[in-house]
Amino acid sequence: MIGVAEVVINSLVKNEKVFLSINKSMKIFENKDLSTVIFNAVFESTIDTICVSPDGRFLLICLKSGMVHIFDIEYCTDSNCLFSK
């Protein structure tokens, strides 16, 4: 069989924004209409867990490889990675 053996999906809604990860891809949509992507990133490994801080400013992404990334998403750009390890 050709294709992806496993699909991992994480999603949540916080402060009107929709956070969606599918396998190695992470997107944040401006609102529930899902018409405007305000953050888009692809990682080297499958995204296992996502978490948003209570104030909605920080996004924590944990990959299956063990890597952890923290983004400042106040301005929602891919380059606002504050921490990777």
Give a summary of the structure in a few sentences.
With 85 residues, this protein is mainly beta.
Q: Give the neighbour order of strands across the main sheet.
A: 1-2-3-4
Q: Summarize the amount of helix as a percent range.
A: under 10%
- Going by helix content, strand content and strand pairing, the class is mainly beta
What percent strand? Answer: over 45%
Number of beta-strand segments: 8
Q: How many domains would you count in the coordinates?
A: 1
**CATH fold call:** Thrombin, subunit H
Residue ranges: pLDDT <50 for 5 or more in a row? Answer: none
Shape label: globular
Look at the structure and give the mean pLDDT: 90
Task: Specify Rg, calculated over alpha carbons.
Answer: 13 Å
CATH class: Mainly Beta
CATH architecture verdict: Beta Barrel
Structural features:
85 residues, mainly beta, Thrombin, subunit H, four-stranded antiparallel sheet
Explain the layout of strands and helices:
Layout: E1 9-14, E2 17-22, E3 25-29, E4 37-42, E5 47-52, E6 58-63, E7 68-72, E8 81-84
Antiparallel strand pairs: 1-2, 2-3, 3-4, 5-6, 6-7, 7-8
